[in-house]
TrEMBL record:
Reaction it catalyzes: L-lysyl-[protein] + 3 S-adenosyl-L-methionine = N(6),N(6),N(6)-trimethyl-L-lysyl-[protein] + 3 S-adenosyl-L-homocysteine + 3 H(+)
InterPro entries: DNA_methylase_N6_adenine_CS, Efm5/EEF1AKMT1, Mlase_EEF1AKMT1/ZCCHC4, SAM-dependent_MTases_sf
Methyltransferase recorded as keyword: yes
Gene source species: Struthio camelus australis
Name of the molecule in the record: N(6)-adenine-specific DNA methyltransferase 2
């Protein structure tokens, strides 16, 4: 009889409350999903006006895995103008390595302290906390197929790397890549999410898993 004194919700109110809780759970679920995908390839669209051409999912994964293997346990990886590789590395966040992204596109500032604004025209205009020869591997994809762009990006690469270099650029840049960075052509052929007119290749200066 005491239960009769407990206020009861009407069926309409109860249904509205259940709907509210369901919507709240869905919002939380979407938020979690968005957080887990904010680093995934494609979460920031490529901008052709900035000479951006994202790798295919398979290529980005392959290059990210190569960078992790080359850097070793607790290794430090720098991605210069290679955001789709950076995004694949972020998907592996639980692994024992750290990564920084050097990029002209300020949209990548959403990645917080790991983002470093980078303009290849000022190759050594870098934050003080980016110490010389402090990265186990540097992976770079200069934005333009010109010797000037490669030469200036090479200054940044040589400043940051302890030794290992993974360069992605056009096949026509093979001679200049060897000249400025001492890198050699790999067998692995990178693919892009959209077909490009220029053939792209990878170059390294160490025994890599890309051959």
């Amino acid at each position: 009889e005491e239960d009769d004194d407990v206020p009861q919700l009407s069926s309409h109110t109860l249904a509205a409350l259940q709907e509210f809780y369901l919507e709240q759970q869905q919002r939380e679920g979407m938020k979690t999903s968005q957080e887990s995908h904010q680093y995934s390839v494609g979460s920031i669209e490529e901008n052709w006006q900035l000479s951006q051409f994202w790798y295919s999912d398979e290529t980005a994964t392959c290059l990210a895995n190569e960078a992790v293997a080359a850097a070793g346990k607790d290794g430090k990886i720098a991605c210069i103008s290679a955001p789709s590789v950076y995004q694949k590395l972020k998907e592996q966040d639980g692994k024992a390595f750290s990564v920084r992204i050097l990029e002209y596109d300020r949209r990548f500032s959403v990645y917080g302290e790991e983002f470093v604004f980078y303009d290849y025209n000022s190759p050594l205009n870098l934050p003080e906390n980016l110490l010389p020869h402090s990265f186990d591997i540097v992976i770079a994809d200069p934005p333009y197929l010109s010797e000037e762009c490669l030469q200036k990006t090479a200054e940044t690469i040589k400043y940051l790397t302890k030794g290992k270099i993974l360069l992605c650029t056009g096949a026509i840049m093979e001679e200049q890549a060897a000249k400025h960075l001492g890198v050699k052509l790999c067998k692995f052929i990178p693919r892009h999410s959209r077909n490009l007119a220029n053939e792209f290749r990878c170059y390294v200066n160490y025994a890599s898993g890309l051959d």
